[in-house]
Amino acid sequence: MHKKFKYPLLVFIWLMVSAFLLEGILRLTAPLLPGRLVIGAQAVLSGELYFADTLDIFTLHRDHNFVALPDLDNAVHVASPTVKIHVTTSRLWDSPFGFRNRPVNYAVDAIVVGDSFSFCITEEADCWVRRFEAETGLGVVNLAQVGTGSMSHWRMIDIYGRPFEPRLVLWQWWGNDFNEDYFLAVERGEIEAIFVPDPPILPQVSDNPLVQWLRTHSVAFAVSEVALGNERPYIDERGQLFIAPYRIKQDGLDIRFGQAYEQRAFDLDNPRNAAGVALTREALRLARDAVSEWGGTFAVIVLPTREEVYAPLTAPVMGDEALGTLVSARETMLGLCEELDLLCLDTLPQLQQLAQQNIQLYYSDDLHLNPRGNAELSRIVWGWLGGEGLLYE
């Protein structure tokens, strides 16, 4: 009997010692863990759910929403556990915030307004705006800011772009702009808030008391669970809006998608987003007329979501209804283009052609275009403008 229990006991002791060693090593090396694994470790070690400080180099402004701090010098911005960029900003016309643009001591041919897709979640040299400038030889001023909608873009043109009277004004649009316009108007007291319940985003809670204990006490367990794809128990409620619950990894692609944030911000059945459409329309009209007054060309660059670009892969997983929510926002914008007689480029068809070649255009764990996606967008934009005879005088 003694020998019968001896070896199982030794195995048990060996497993326990290994587990304690692993736990100790992970606790000591937690800050060095790669990618998203740090989420679980941080939650256990701090006793608080993971919170990504995405506002580290940004601030709120009443006329625009989220804008970059001025006079940044190679500041680090962490967009996701695997995406980190460096940002340098300069002021323009004594602006209280910064632009991701070098001091303007050159002839200006074009300005760009937009949100984070034109501020760019890349190193500056990889941003489509800078690539567009380098590839065309035009002098371009980038007025894009991260968390902004169409009314902000119009104000950027009116206040900071108008003095240049540029020949080209490029306006980049993405599907949350209606939502951004609504909330900014409420903050400014221009419209009444619309109260509608949001679908709850709840942490994933286990009824198993052992699992609950391990999630709050064991770094090894937390890191393992995140590595297996379940990070929700370790992220705060706002952060859970940006969790992409679905993942496709095939043919060289690694795409996470299906964020609850996009479903909320794009849904035009939501009266708040629907109210933003009229605000976007007015902003576009004002910008169109202003640019026309100084003899410039106003062009709108319509960007899709990664879910739309990779629709043959994403639709079977997330469902046609959820994908349709994203599509409807872009189609509504294209409707405004027609209604206002705007010059608009829907970039979806060309991005889809690239996606069909299994080219990774977006980050795996962030909704923005990666450096390759920015490079392709630059070529798409200047190719389109050239085809329209608008690139050069």
Question: In words, what does this structure look like?
Answer:
By secondary structure, the protein is of the alpha/beta class. It folds into 2 domains: 2-52 and 202-240, no CATH class; 63-196 and 261-387, Rossmann fold (3-Layer(aba) Sandwich). The chain has 16 helices and 11 strands. The strands form 4 sheets. The chain has a 5-stranded parallel β-sheet, with helices on both faces. Strand 3 (75-80) and strand 4 (83-87) form a beta hairpin. Helix 2 packs antiparallel against helix 8 (219-227). The model has no long low-confidence stretch (mean pLDDT 88).
Q: What kind of sheet is the major sheet? A: 5 strands, parallel
Could you estimate the helical fraction of the residues in percent? Answer: 40-55%
Helix/strand-derived category reads: alpha/beta
The proportion of strand residues reads 5-15%
Supply the key terms.
393 residues, alpha/beta, Rossmann fold, 2 domains, five-stranded parallel beta sheet, two-stranded antiparallel ribbon
Concise account of the structure shown:
By secondary structure, the chain is α/β, with parallel strands linked by helices. The chain has 16 helices and 11 strands.
SSE layout:
Elements: H1 2-29, H2 37-46, E1 58-61, E2 65-68, E3 75-80, E4 83-87, E5 110-113, H3 116-119, H4 128-136, E6 140-142, H5 150-161, E7 168-173, H6 177-187, H7 209-217, H8 219-227, H9 237-240, E8 246-250, E9 253-257, H10 260-266, H11 271-293, E10 297-302, H12 306-309, H13 311-318, H14 320-339, E11 343-346, H15 348-355, H16 371-387
Helix pairs in contact: 2-8, 4-16, 5-11, 6-11, 13-14
